[in-house]
Amino acid sequence: MNSAPRPMRILQTTIVVAILLATLFTALPSQGAVNKNFYERLSLLLTPQVESVASQTVKPQARIGIVAGHLGNDSGAACVDGVGNVTLTEADVNLKIAAMVEQQLQQAGYQVDLLNEFDTRLNGYRALAIVSIHNDSCEYVNDGATGFKVAAALNTNDVNRANRLTACLVDRYQKTTKLTFHAGSITSDMREYHAFREIDPSTVAAIIETGFLNLDREILTKNTDQVAAGIVDGILCFANNENIESTPIPNLTP
Predict the structure, then answer these.
(1) Cα–Cα distance between 170 and 29 in angstroms, integer?
(2) If you ran DSSP here, which 8-state letter would residue 250 be given?
(3) What domains are there in the chain, each with its CATH number?
């Protein structure tokens, strides 16, 4: 087995080729008597081709999962008019936001999986992070029923990273949309969201309710790109370990 280092082997090969070329060109007739292309083809065949190291290195894309809440299962919250006709569904709003998030993350260089509510791919799903997108009720509650909520998975292997994903989403989404963060109204259903139990425990996960379909309908339906950008900025904050300002959020307690 040839144990010479790669640079030495390349040098040895080059010397042998040079000697062979010199011998051939001495023995063969001059270029005036032989087609010039013959010499060019011969030179290409005998010259060692060294593959670029850069071409051998492929940077893997980080994977992000985005769940479009209720997609493929039910409508979620439904907005009805005065005569009982459905004018808007949560599932439709969630999908519109999720599709924009997917596109923006792909443009940022990430591999993105757009997932249904009960997608079979959630079983053992492994990624840098997964975020499930939802919205709150269409019913009028009071004038304070506006704003967003974010909660992280309870059953995670890394509480610190889960809290950081939550903090990033809260900070960036609030700055982008100017909506109020409702820390006090996060429910156990959000923390115990079914997908959190299905994915691989090493995958950091969070769920966000991006607004209320009643008082926040305008920004959710007419400025959807802004809503999506707030989520993307939060995910990138987490992925790139960006700085965030102190935002009061409830910490995870296993």
Answers:
(1) 79
(2) P
(3) 6-56 (no CATH), 63-239 (3.40.630.40)
**Tens digits of residue pLDDT in 20-62:** 555 555 545 554 444 555 555 545 544 554 444 444 444 467 9
How much is the pLDDT for 73? Answer: 95
Distance CA 209, CA 144 (A): 15
What is the identity of the amino acid at 186? Answer: I
HSE of 63, CA atoms in CB hemisphere, 13 A: 9
Tokens standing for residue 98: 């999720």
Helix (H) or strand (E) segment spanning residue 212:
strand 204-212
For strand 149-152 and strand 204-212, is the pairing parallel, antiparallel, or unpaired? antiparallel
Residue 69 reports pLDDT greater than 50: yes
Q: How far from 224 is each of 121, 158, 197, CA to CA, in Å?
A: 26, 31, 29
DSSP for 68-129, written as a single string: ETTTTT---SEEE-TTS-EEEEHHHHHHHHHHHHHHHHHHTT-EEEEE-TT-GGGTT---SE
Rounded Cα gap, residues 72 and 65, in angstroms: 16
